[in-house]
């Protein structure tokens, strides 16, 4: 079935029950279905057809879910953009997928003010939410003027539904493409694995533009007929307030986000007893986090593993044995293997306890990278997705994350491609070459360390502050390097490429100094 049936059971059984909660506003299943249909009519009135891409650039708010489902209703493809993106990043994604429309949150309008002129595929930029007086192209006006629809487009399981941009090991983000089938498989797999019911209240505490909060929290909960509480931002105070006022039963958090919440002095007086399960992923969980979490609740923290290509692929059983340090077992609908890490081979399973690459398979896995046959072909082997992550398996079938094959940097749960940061730094007129690596950080998992080789003979070489400001204009804030080291010559390997192993070693030395 297509995602158009996501709300079907709840609409029949409990139409007046709260489907979404945001900023203390409650939206029933009936009201949500109505707004979805009206926004779907608005899309059709603007000429959006089956298969067209609709970019959504918004912060967390309940309308984000509405727009997802409105796109699904007519077979359009939702393209959620990270709300931390800067203009160049938005333009890249829009151009790469040839988006037809951009719908933007009012406060983010300055970031995309001239995107319509820069991106030829766009036929319009529309504003949803608070915006300056006199702003044109307001989404509510489009919806209000849209005519009734009697002949809705036909949508089938294998139609693309979402393109999520994520940083890979290359210099530019890749468009992870999910179909109605893969998203529904993820949602139903979570419902079965976590035993979600209509009584569950799930807290979407991370960015709804990412797979974790949308595919991992919102869609499974709506499928089960539960209630989704959406936080405006990842703030420990908002999280603790939600525990007190909304009494959620489930949530997924990033390690740094959860640590900030449980060490907050307010956590001592908040009752965590409403929670039946807290899942944590996106990075390694430190012993400190386990210890601090145990101070505020008797729950055992559930570590999970997933990626944009397959959300929530493995997790500790919701009502079974949780092993600290383990990323659990494959959830319903997913298979996993630990395979010898060799390029473009069928791979052989490694022995129990040995380290290899994590491979996964199932209907929840993406269909490929948008307009990128080369990387899609390199990622799949005989139907298995090569994750680029290393792991091992114990005698009970529990998996353990052991590191990454790729050079990707994971900072606070967000992927950062070194090449993307290097491309920006290398564009500075005074930079000869740059090399970027991740360096360990107890709270965020990793920080971004930039090694910069300036052009020789500069009369007034740029400072760290100069380069930081240059990067901040072109990259989302979390991608801007945290640490800077100026070098006379960057280390290179035998074929003349940047020697990242040497940079990693140098970063470790500097951290220890």
Automatic annotation (TrEMBL):
Residues 420-497 form the AMP-binding enzyme C-terminal domain. The keyword Isomerase does not apply. Keywords: Ligase. Residues 9-370 form the AMP-dependent synthetase/ligase domain. InterPro entries: AMP-bd_C, AMP-bd_C_sf, AMP-binding_CS, AMP-dep_synth/lig_dom, ANL_N_sf, ATP-dep_AMP-bd_enzyme. It comes from the Bacteria. It holds the Pfam family AMP-binding. One of its GO terms (molecular function) is ligase activity. This is Fatty acid--CoA ligase family protein. It comes from Agromyces neolithicus.
């Amino acid at each position: 079935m297509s995602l158009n049936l996501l709300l079907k059971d709840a609409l029949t059984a409990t139409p007046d029950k709260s489907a979404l909660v945001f900023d203390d506003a409650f939206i029933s299943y009936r009201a949500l279905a109505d707004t979805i249909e009206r926004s779907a009519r608005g899309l059709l009135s603007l000429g959006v057809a089956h298969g067209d891409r609709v970019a959504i650039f918004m912060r967390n708010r309940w309308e984000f879910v509405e727009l997802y489902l409105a796109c699904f209703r007519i077979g359009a493809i939702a393209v959620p953009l990270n709300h931390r993106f800067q203009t160049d990043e938005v333009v890249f994604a829009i151009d790469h997928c040839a988006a037809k429309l951009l719908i933007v949150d009012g406060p983010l309008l300055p970031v995309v003010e001239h995107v319509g002129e820069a991106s030829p595929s766009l036929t319009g930029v529309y504003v949803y939410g608070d915006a300056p007086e006199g702003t044109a192209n307001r989404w509510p006006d489009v919806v209000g003027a849209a005519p009734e629809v009697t002949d809705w487009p036909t949508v089938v399981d294998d139609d693309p539904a979402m393109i999520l941009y994520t940083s890979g090991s290359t210099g530019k983000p890749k468009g992870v493409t999910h179909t109605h089938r893969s998203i529904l498989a993820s949602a139903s797999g979570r419902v079965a694995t976590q035993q979600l019911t209509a009584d569950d209240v799930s807290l979407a505490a991370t960015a709804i533009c990412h797979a974790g909060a949308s595919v991992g929290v919102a869609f499974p909960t709506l499928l089960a007929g539960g209630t989704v509480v959406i936080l405006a931002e990842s703030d420990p105070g908002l999280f603790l307030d939600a525990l007190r006022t909304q009494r959620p039963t489930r949530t997924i958090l990033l390690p740094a986000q959860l640590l900030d919440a449980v060490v907050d002095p307010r956590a001592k007086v908040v009752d965590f007893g409403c929670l039946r399960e807290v899942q944590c992923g996106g990075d390694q969980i430190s012993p400190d986090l386990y210890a601090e979490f145990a101070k505020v609740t008797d729950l055992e923290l559930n570590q999970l593993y997933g990626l944009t290509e397959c959300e929530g692929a493995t997790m500790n059983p919701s009502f079974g044995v949780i092993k600290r340090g383990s990323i659990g077992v494959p959830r319903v609908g997913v298979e996993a293997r630990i395979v010898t890490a060799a390029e473009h081979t069928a791979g052989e399973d490694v022995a129990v306890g040995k380290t290899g690459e994590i491979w996964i398979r199932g209907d929840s896995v993406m269909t490929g990278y948008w307009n990128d046959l080369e990387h899609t072909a390199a990622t799949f082997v005989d139907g298995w997705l090569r994750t680029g992550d290393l792991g091992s398996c114990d005698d009970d079938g529990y998996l353990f994350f052991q590191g990454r094959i790729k050079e990707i940097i994971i900072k606070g749960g967000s992927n950062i491609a070194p090449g993307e940061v290097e491309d920006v730094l290398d564009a500075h007129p005074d930079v000869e070459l740059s090399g970027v690596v991740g360096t360990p950080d107890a709270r965020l998992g990793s920080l971004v360390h930039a090694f910069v080789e300036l052009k020789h003979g500069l009369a007034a070489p740029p400072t760290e502050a100069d380069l930081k400001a240059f990067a901040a204009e072109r990259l989302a804030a979390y991608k801007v390097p945290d640490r800077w080291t100026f070098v006379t010559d960057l280390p290179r390997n035998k074929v003349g490429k940047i020697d990242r192993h040497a940079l990693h070693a140098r970063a470790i030395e500097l951290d220890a100094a």
